Amino acid sequence: MFVFIAGGGRTGSQLAKHLIEQNHQVRLIEHRRELLNLLHRELPTEVIYEGLATDPNVLKLAGLEKADVLVTTGSDDATNLVTCYLARTLFKTRRTIARINNPLNAWLFDQHFHVDETVNQADVMAHLIEEEMSLGDMMTLLKLRRGRYSLVEEKVPPGAKAIGVQIKDLGLPDTCVIAAIIRHGQVTLPRGTSGFEEGDEVLAVADDEGAKELARLLEPPTRPVKG
Questions:
Q1: Using one digit for the tens of pLDDT, what is the confidence trace for 38-93?
Q2: Do β-strands 176-183 and 201-206 pair in parallel, antiparallel, or remain unpaired?
Q3: Strand ranges (DSSP E) for 111-185?
Q4: pLDDT digit string (tens) for 151-205?
């Protein structure tokens, strides 16, 4: 896949490095001299193109018309919006993803400016903090289906309600599926008759409500368990 990145700050450069490692074709455009000096130390020279991301002539020379995806990672929302608009209207870019810096500007990032997907940093941070507060020791490893489902992981503590209960009898909602159990370093694919043991690492695919219910079943007792 050919990914075109507009903005060579820390977010853009890290994204470019990650995509290159995944064997994607990448082109990153940046005009600030101080950032270009850093980029040439971190990325292959052929990936970097110097110029303004809001200049249609520059975008054409940089090869945007060949890109499958445009990702705008700049610190200025107006620039990110204009770049998405140009990409779709002039270069027929199939997919656009834009970074939102100011949450108050989020309403602008829609189909009117040809933005397909957004990354709202404030919303992402707030959601992660909320999850950490509500799910206790449960960790979110990966977001799926645009954030509705997540791959979560938690270690079974002593005295958890779920210990010794078959998965089919836990009463988990349909939106929470146990994907794997890691026990003594070995990964097993669970069945309905499988059960949890103390120290197991449980991987599950769940929506928010399903993850909360699983966290409740795996939480430690309010009083210490006596050995």
A1: 999 999 999 999 999 999 999 999 999 999 999 999 999 999 999 999 999 999 99
A2: antiparallel
A3: 117-120, 139-144, 149-155, 176-183
A4: 888 899 999 999 999 999 999 999 999 999 999 888 888 999 999 999 999 999 9
Q: Against a cut of 0.70, is the pTM above it?
A: no
6-31 exposure pattern, b = at least 16 Cβ within 10 A, e = fewer? bbbbebbbebbbebbeeeeebbbbbb
The angle, 0 to 180 degrees and rounded to 10, between the axes of the packed helices 33-42 and 10-21 is 20
pLDDT higher than 50, residue 225: no
Distance CA 157, CA 39 (A): 46
More reliable by pLDDT, 129 or 215: 215
Burial of 81 (0-12, 13-18, 19+ CB in 10 A): buried
Q: Are 40 and 106 in contact (CB under 8 A)?
A: no
Q: Is 190 exposed, middle or buried (0-12, 13-18, 19+ CB in 10 A)?
A: buried
Provide the token pair at 42. Answer: 């971190």
Q: How far is CA 101 from CA 120, 123, 204, in A?
A: 7, 10, 32
How far, in Å, CA of 91 to CA of 87, rounded? Answer: 5
Q: Which residues, at least 6 apart from 51, have a Cβ–Cβ distance to it below 8 Å?
A: 29, 31, 58, 59, 61, 62
* Angle formed at CA 96 by CA 94 and CA 99, multiple of 5 degrees: 170
Q: Check the CA dihedral 208-214-218-220 and report its sign.
A: positive
- Measured distance CA(128)–CA(136) in Å, rounded: 12
